[in-house]
Amino acid sequence: MTDEGSAVDTRPTKIMYVAEATAHGGRDGEITSQDGQIALKVAMPPALGGDGNGTNPEQLFAAGYSSCFHNALVLVGRREGYDLTGSTVAAKVGIGPNKQRGYGLAVALSVSLPVLDQDIAAKLVEAAHMVCPYSNATRDNIDVTIILG
Description:
Elements: E1 21-24, E2 29-33, E3 39-42, H1 57-80, E4 88-97, E5 103-112, H2 118-131, H3 133-138, E6 143-148
Parallel strand pairs: 5-6
Antiparallel strand pairs: 1-2, 2-3, 4-5
Helix pairs in contact: 1-2
């Protein structure tokens, strides 16, 4: 399953919550959230020439996207009356150079819905992909592949 073009306006009509975080030192520094829930050392991963002694933006994006997508999945599953016991969403976020001499991201979401029939699971995953704010923010901007297993 991959993203296909969409002309749907996915911008919020009302802001219900605002998260705040500050970075010091870029990819070799630290990040904190305004409420103190996040206070992490950030470091370049070894694959990008760093020591890997800290988290990195790609790990944080993977954590956020997988959590958000799983919540969307639970929401649409509950709306449809399905049991999502044991369901999981894992995200892999890749980074690499793009054609504009900058960098781009690619995401692979692995979704497991062990108690559901594959056809029903596929429909719920498709619906969750339309509901999830991360999916809406990334649609038509980066490659997002969803693997249902």
